[in-house]
Specification:
InterPro entries: Hemerythrin-like. By secondary structure, this protein is an all-alpha fold. Helices cover 78% and strands 0% of the residues. The chain binds fe (ii) ion.
Length: 159
C-alpha cells in the first residue's frame, strides 16, 4: 500500500517534494482548524483541539526549518540582475513564520484555559477569533509559498 510522503521521511526525494508535503500537511491542518472554529461553542471536542494545535505547532516548526535552512539559501543565491534583491521578501516570509508560530502558541494557551475553566461565551469568541486568524494567515502564507517560492526554487534548479 503506497504511503503519502511526509517531511519527516528520511528518504531523499528532493526538496520540491518535501516542500509539497509541507504544503499538503498545512492545507489539511487549516481545514481541521476551520472545522474546529465551526464547531464552537457547543460541539467543540476540546481534547481533539488541543492535540490538533499541538500537531500544528510541530508541523510549523518543521516546515519553517526546512524553508529557512534549505529553501531560502537557494533563493538568496538567485542572480540579483535577473530577480532583483530578494532579501526583503525572504525577511518578510521569515517574519510571517515567526508570527504564525507565535499565533499557534497563543492558541495552545487559550485552548488550555478553555479546557480548564467552565465554558464561557467570551472564551468561545476568543477561541474562534484565534482559530480563524491562524488558518486565514497560514493559508495566505502557503499560497505565497506555492505561487512564488516554489516556482522560483524550481527555476533555480532545486531537486
Ligand atoms: Fe513559508
Amino acid at each position: 500500500m503506497p504511503q503519502s510522503r511526509s517531511i519527516a521521511s528520511t528518504e531523499p526525494a528532493g526538496l520540491l517534494a518535501d516542500l509539497d508535503a509541507c504544503f499538503a500537511e498545512q492545507d489539511s491542518l487549516c481545514r481541521s482548524l476551520e472545522e474546529l472554529a465551526d464547531s464552537l461553542p457547543e460541539r467543540l471536542n476540546t481534547l481533539g483541539a488541543v492535540l490538533l494545535v499541538g500537531r500544528l505547532s510541530a508541523l510549523l516548526r518543521r516546515a519553517h526549518h526546512l524553508e529557512e535552512t534549505q529553501v531560502f539559501p537557494i533563493l538568496a543565491s538567485a542572480p540579483v540582475r535577473m530577480h532583483g534583491d530578494l532579501r526583503p521578501i525572504l525577511n518578510r516570509l521569515r517574519a510571517e513564520h515567526t508570527e504564525n508560530e507565535d499565533y499557534a502558541l497563543d492558541l495552545e494557551d487559550t485552548l488550555a484555559e478553555y479546557w480548564a475553566r467552565p465554558v464561557a461565551r467570551a472564551d468561545a469568541e476568543r477561541l474562534g477569533y484565534l482559530l480563524r486568524g491562524l488558518f486565514i494567515s497560514l493559508r495566505r502564507h502557503v499560497a505565497q509559498d506555492r505561487d512564488w517560492v516554489r516556482p522560483l526554487l524550481r527555476e533555480l534548479g532545486a531537486p
